[in-house]
Amino acid sequence: MPKDVTKRRPRTRAALLRAALATFAEHGFHATSIEQICERAGYTRGAYYSNFASKEELFLALFDEHSERTVRRLAEAIDGLAAEEHTLERIAALASRVEPDERDWYLVTTEFTLHAIRDPQAAWVLARHDARLRAEIARGLTSVLRRAGRELTVDADRFARLLIALREGGLAQSYVEPEELPPGSLERDFLAPLLEASTRETAPGETDRADGTGTAEGAVSRTDPGPTP
């Protein structure tokens, strides 16, 4: 592949992803055509198919990009805390933040999840991506809790599922009644008590390094997902 094409490819892919997210959010995943995405991004169908085989593959690329960005933002915020700020209340406050652009992603991922519930193949593929995200959350949470002198008393993957359910269920209600329940409200109110009830203090002298790294970002670094079916 010529060098100029190689250099352009990441820019083309990024532009298609941005256009897809905006178009999916505006028109819906099923109603959006590949032509609409290409027109919005300013590229041809050929450019699209040189990056993605289908709309489903494009959505999964969006899923991984969003997951990585969300984890990175939280990790950077946690790494900026002073030692005395590593408390369950502070961790809960950071985890409850909802970025302004989250609504578009929520609309897109909710529709695709409904599609996956109806389609066993889509469900199988989405479950694999969900599992990788939960693994990142579980590793990061374990690391952060150790800094706070605590450890989970329940299975970390199951607890990650609960955190995701709280997040997504809360956002569903918040986007319907934003004034009654601002985004992140349920997490701000209940995440710290939930962490308190699901953890215990660690023995004195225990390390705060969960997996050989000294940062939250290192603890939740994205694993190689391997080829996507």
From TrEMBL:
Residues 10-70 form the HTH tetR-type domain. Gene3D superfamilies: Homeodomain-like (1.10.10.60), Tetracycline Repressor, domain 2 (1.10.357.10). It comes from Streptomyces lateritius. The lineage of its organism: Bacteria, Bacillati, Actinomycetota, Actinomycetes, Kitasatosporales. Keywords: DNA-binding, Repressor, Transcription, Transcription regulation. Residues 178-229 are annotated as: Disordered. InterPro entries: BetI_C, Homeodomain-like_sf, HTH-type_TetR-like_transc_reg, HTH_TetR, Tet_transcr_reg_TetR-rel_C_sf. SUPFAM superfamilies: Homeodomain-like, Tetracyclin repressor-like, C-terminal domain. This is TetR/AcrR family transcriptional regulator. It comes from the Bacteria. Residues 33-52 bind DNA. PROSITE patterns: HTH_TETR_2.
